[in-house]
């Protein structure tokens, strides 16, 4: 089985949540938009996404091609991959639960994006800077604590799960929690300075993912695209501020 991942070249973005699932399990995959051979690169991504004959087209990257099927939306891709890669429990309840966690993280990621693009994604940050300051203040002061208090509660209630969010084994939701914490540390280093003290269980889960041999190797490899100011997690010094953590 060949997994072909389509995402915008040069960006971590939402595609990184899917990459982490492959990397954590040592699963081979092909990055179509990062490639140079004919049929790959941006031309390959756009041609596949906009194919007028496709009956199940994705709305936007990331999407995954497996055989003749295209699977879109990050949480949906991970719900498909989770059982195949051993990143979710076997029971229907466990699978619904991990998908629920992933969807909650997707809500948080959307709010992070909208902090620096509060008016419109098609406008430059410089065209909405004043509004971004107000939106980011709300994100840091209220929304981030609310989300992380929830995940801290989940980890506390599941203390028997070995430090993971579900059923005693790492799931794709744990990988995604790691990525969100990493991204926020890049975007808001000042706001996140007290994170470990305020949310020790979230911090411990992040650290446990980072210590996994395959993840540790991936983070040091050229395959790990660096955070930058064209992705979801962006660092603008004027937006960072002290948090209530």
From TrEMBL:
Gene3D superfamilies: 1.20.1050.10, Glutaredoxin (3.40.30.10)
GO biological process, any: glutathione metabolic process
PROSITE patterns, per database record: GST_CTER, GST_NTER
Protein keywords: Transferase
Pfam assignment, any one: GST_C_3
Molecular function GO labels: glutathione transferase activity
Domain GST N-terminal: 2-89
InterPro entries named among the record's database cross-references: Glutathione-S-Trfase_C-like, Glutathione-S-Trfase_C_sf, Glutathione_S-Trfase_N, GST_C, GST_superfamily, Thioredoxin-like_sf
Residues annotated as domain GST C-terminal: 91-245
Protein name (record): Glutathione S-transferase
